[in-house]
Design brief:
The chain is globular, with a radius of gyration of 20 Å. The strands form three sheets. It has an eight-stranded parallel β-sheet. It has a two-stranded antiparallel sheet with strand order 1-12. The chain has a two-stranded antiparallel ribbon with strand order 2-3. With about 375 residues, it is α/β, with parallel strands linked by helices. The model has no long low-confidence stretch (mean pLDDT about 95). The two termini are about 35 Å apart. It has one domain: Alpha-Beta Barrel (TIM Barrel). It contains 16 helices and twelve strands. α14 links the parallel β9 and β10.
């Protein structure tokens, strides 16, 4: 199977599985415990039917939307995800350049593998995803660097106060950097191109954290261990409000799932919230983001930008979230399988397929702009 044979999310996933050593593929693919929430994130969309209109003159479709004060040409963007150079040697560079080509936003994680300064120079809207460390000196240093690097939005992740129980990672022995074990040795040896790229291209490291959280760049440690030991479990609303004030620009909370928290986000001055359960990777058994979307939009959608993140595999899933009132959609696996499959070319193809599919589906719905989408288009089973 090659990139030219990839026509949808599932094809990219198959090609990524073919290219990546098993522990790394399952790090992307897996979620917490029984992975019930992860599966529900996608299946929730199947409980809602689209009701199209016809004879609406749909020759020209405008997919643009405005989030965090930035107009983007697509109503979806690439969520920030960690460790991208494990999946392809270009990592975040590939994603940023692909996002620029489509004039959409891309997110950069605190656990990025390319310097934030370099990514900040990519001329397209950018979100920085912030992890709040016990060592507040790290927080200040990261904030200062991001401020100097031309990012448009700071998104504080609030759903990783401790690590979810990601049992696939326990079974495969996934660590960062990767660690060879007897059980994983064959998997790495069977993917020689990945190994050659990992060994002979630039050294794998986490530029933002390499001097302060050396364990993640120099010693094989689990992401679960990082979340559970390095992040500040005493983080509260006052800390979030103070961070928002220190940042001084567009500020979002990533990982909001309740109406109560959505309202509180408005109170502390957020300009947006990302309705997300971290791809089902944290609290298994929590509700899907799409199932929670309507009540959150009803509570705060007229005050701040509400983003629906996770579970999206088809343009019709985006149509349904946008019809409920999300200002935009986002996802990680949405583009990560494509990154692992073929780098920048893979991400560009994935974004292109979503764009083309969304244009087609908008026409089939009888809509020419995102604001045409509304709940009259939907019926819940």
């Amino acid at each position: 199977m090659r990139l030219k044979h990839c026509n949808n999310f599932h094809d990219f996933r198959k090609l990524a599985k073919k290219r990546l050593p098993s522990p790394i593929f399952h790090y992307i693919d897996g979620a917490a415990e029984d992975e019930t929430t992860h599966q529900r994130n996608t299946s929730a969309y199947n409980d809602v039917d689209l009701v199209p209109n016809v004879l609406r003159g749909v020759e020209n479709v405008d997919l643009s939307t405005t989030i965090f004060g930035k107009k983007i040409d697509l109503p979806f963007y690439c969520s920030p995800t960690a460790l991208q150079r494990l999946f392809h040697y270009d990592g975040e560079r590939a994603v940023g350049r692909a996002a620029k080509k489509f004039n959409t936003m891309f997110g950069v994680s605190t656990i990025a593998t390319v310097p934030v300064e370099e990514l900040g120079a990519i001329d397209t809207p950018k979100m920085f995803q912030f992890y709040y460390h016990k060592d507040h000196g790290i927080n200040s240093a990261v904030l200062e660097k991001v401020k100097a690097s031309n990012y448009d939005v700071l998104a504080l992740t609030v759903d990783t106060i401790t690590s979810g129980n990601r049992e696939r990672d326990l079974r495969t022995g996934f660590t960062s950097p990767p660690k060879l074990t007897l059980s994983s040795l064959f998997s790495f040896l069977s993917k020689p191109m990945w190994g050659l790229n990992y060994v002979f291209r630039e050294k794998f490291e986490l530029p933002l954290l390499k001097d302060t959280v050396g364990e993640l760049s120099n010693v094989a440690t689990s992401i679960g261990s990082y979340f559970s030991t390095m992040l500040d479990q005493s983080m509260n609303w006052n800390d979030a409000e103070k961070l928002s004030s220190e940042w001084g620009g567009h500020f979002a909370l990533k990982g909001i799932m309740s109406v109560e928290d959505a309202k509180r986000a408005v109170d502390i001055g957020c300009t947006g919230i990302i309705v997300s359960n971290h791809g089902g990777r944290q609290l298994d058994g929590s509700r899907s983001n799409f199932d929670q979307l309507a009540e959150i939009v009803d509570a705060v959608g007229d005050k701040i930008d509400v983003i629906c993140e996770g579970g999206i595999q088809r343009p019709t899933h985006m149509l349904k979230a946008l019809s409920l009132g999300a200002k935009a959609c986002a996802g990680g696996r949405l583009y990560l399988y494509a990154l692992a499959a073929a780098g920048q070319a893979g991400v560009e193809k994935a974004l292109g397929l979503y764009k083309t599919g969304l244009e087609r589906d908008m026409k089939l719905m009888g809509c020419t702009k995102i604001s045409d989408l509304n709940r009259d288009n939907l019926r819940f089973r």
